[in-house]
Design the sequence.
């Protein structure tokens, strides 16, 4: 029996600043939806190597909701940067992080939405299979990538990053879409199996290294040197880009998409010929 | 019947319409063409998935298997071959059993170089072609539909009957969810079920042939010397009723002795459209 009413959101405010990392994969809408405030506060987390509860680390306000809002500690802006695994394996609901988020944000998520009004660290969206991950700031290395030893990375869903992303975004990606508003680091889309990676800034060097299939797009036409294992195919308009860019603009109207991007021509390079060679890198050509 | 809606886009309306007209060619009657098809509407760029000018087409068959077969043939031979086109499903989400694998069958034309793209649950196939690429959706929706709604326009002479039929077609054409599968929307050779010949499923509608007035039991008043039929296929009963109503209103002018409809003894389907009832009720019409 519920002893309290369901709230619209569950608010988590970091209690105090600290340099110790926190592992909190229990910050997950699937776990919050059926729990009272006390039960949420009792969920386990790791503070360094010590097991604690969410209530030890956060002021918890709200119950029985799959909408979570997180705030930094008043005396430590940026404290949430140390909180790892927020939204890991979530399949529903929404998490809004006011500040930066720690490593493994939304890793293995299958549904729902995470919004970060700040930046994220390494491995955000790793092995993501569904849902939407939005980051207002930058993202660290290995965005949507595969953990070491794993064959496939991201398998579905969409990641939007307004800023830039670190190296190896979308590594071993199998399906889904990553959209980067700024620059993408080296080895973006390395060993991609399928899926789509859109970069509105500069596409870093050695993009698509070892990719089998999939699409990497330098939407603004800026790309550092491609690997010699990618061969130029043609320059032409790409019909599917029209469908994708229109949908992207509907998702995030702040993306710098112009009519020229939608209807313009793209240089097409195919590779990586060291593997299957059916991947493509599209680089926007002048309209 | 079963129906599907194709949205065909191209670099401009001219090419989209060319593809649509070719796709809906030789599709006047399920009896001999395999399907009935027609152009439903011209679509503005903001109404199409890829933001280009488009044309929506409705295709009707007697059953699901025939519809899949017809769509594969027509999209493969008439849309894919037409310059700059792409082809999308226009019915939206339907249940799994009401999906027809069209792009999923045509993709093999890519000879292994076809590229799959999945966006928000929809799979698209990018098929490399000499021009560039042909983009087609993996599957198209199918829904139950109604074929064979019809109006018989009985004119005092051929000119009056044709003019009335043309007015009716012009009035019906702006409506959504219906098509007029016959040439210019008008059939001059309406048929009756069966024939004196065992090998023929349909034959000329003798009761409405003026030249047979003296030889058969005619349905024509003395003053009638020419008859045209307007066949209407629609996605719903409401859509057909609306089309029949505006068609009758437009056709009913001087020179038209009577407007009727063929009911074939009520044996040709479960839907009956009674003209007096249609004209007596207010029907909402959705125009394009």
Sequence:
């Amino acid at each position: 029996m519920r002893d309290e009413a369901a709230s619209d959101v569950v608010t988590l405010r970091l209690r105090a600043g600290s340099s110790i990392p926190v592992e909190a994969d229990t910050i997950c809408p699937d776990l919050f939806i059926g729990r009272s405030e006390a039960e949420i506060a009792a969920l386990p987390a790791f503070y360094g190597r010590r097991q604690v509860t969410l209530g030890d680390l956060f002021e918890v306000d709200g119950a029985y909701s799959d909408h979570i809002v997180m705030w930094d500690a008043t005396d430590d802006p940026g404290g949430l940067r140390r909180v790892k695994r927020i939204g890991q394996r979530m399949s529903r609901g929404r998490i809004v992080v006011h500040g930066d988020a720690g490593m493994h944000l939304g890793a293995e998520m299958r549904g729902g939405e995470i919004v970060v009004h700040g930046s994220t660290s390494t491995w955000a969206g790793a092995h993501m299979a569904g849902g939407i991950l939005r980051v207002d700031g930058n993202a660290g290395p290995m965005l949507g990538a595969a953990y070491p030893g794993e064959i496939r990375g991201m398998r579905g869903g969409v990641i939007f990053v307004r800023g830039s992303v670190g190296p190896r975004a979308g590594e071993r990606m199998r399906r889904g879409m990553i959209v980067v508003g700024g620059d993408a680091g080296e080895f973006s889309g390395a060993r991609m199996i399928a899926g789509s990676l859109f970069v509105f800034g500069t596409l870093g060097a050695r993009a698509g290294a070892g990719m089998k299939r999939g699409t990497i797009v330098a939407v603004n036409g800026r790309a550092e040197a491609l690997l010699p294992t990618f061969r130029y195919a043609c320059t032409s308009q790409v019909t599917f880009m029209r469908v994708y860019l229109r949908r992207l603009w509907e998702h995030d109207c702040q993306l710098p998409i112009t009519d020229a991007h939608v209807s313009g021509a793209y240089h097409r390079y195919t590779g990586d010929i060291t593997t299957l060679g059916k991947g493509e890198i599209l680089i926007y050509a002048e309209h | 019947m079963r129906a599907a809606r194709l949205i065909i886009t191209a670099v401009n309306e001219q090419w989209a319409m060319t593809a649509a007209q070719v796709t809906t060619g030789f599709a006047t009657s399920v009896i001999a063409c395999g399907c009935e098809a027609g152009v439903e509407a011209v679509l503005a760029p903001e109404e199409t998935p890829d933001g280009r000018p488009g044309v929506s087409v409705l295709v009707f068959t007697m059953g699901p298997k025939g519809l899949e077969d017809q769509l594969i043939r027509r999209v493969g031979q008439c849309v894919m071959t037409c310059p700059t086109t792409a082809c999308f499903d226009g019915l939206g989400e339907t249940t799994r059993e009401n999906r027809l694998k069209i792009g999923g069958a045509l993709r093999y034309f890519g000879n292994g170089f076809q590229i799959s793209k999945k966006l928000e649950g929809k799979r698209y196939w990018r098929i490399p072609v000499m021009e560039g690429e042909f983009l087609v959706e993996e599957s198209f929706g199918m829904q139950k539909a109604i074929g064979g709604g019809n109006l018989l326009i009985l004119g005092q002479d051929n000119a009056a009957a044709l003019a009335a039929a043309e007015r009716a077609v012009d009035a019906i054409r702006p409506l959504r969810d219906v098509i007029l599968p016959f040439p210019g929307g008008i059939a001059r050779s309406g048929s009756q079920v069966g024939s004196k010949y065992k090998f023929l499923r349909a034959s000329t509608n003798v009761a409405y042939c003026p030249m047979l007035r003296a030889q058969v039991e005619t349905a024509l008043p003395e003053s009638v010397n020419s008859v045209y039929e307007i066949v209407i296929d629609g996605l719903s009963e409401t859509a057909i009723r609306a089309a029949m109503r505006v068609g009758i209103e437009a056709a009913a002018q001087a020179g038209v002795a009577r407007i009727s409809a063929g009911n074939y003894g009520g044996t040709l389907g479960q839907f009956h459209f009674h003209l007096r009832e249609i004209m007596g009720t207010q029907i909402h019409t959705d125009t394009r």
Summary: The helical segments of chain A are 29-32, 37-41, 54-57, 239-251, 259-263. Chain A touches chain B at residues 175, 177, 194, 196, 213, 215, 236-240, 242-244, 246-247, 262, 278, 280 (CB under 8 Å).
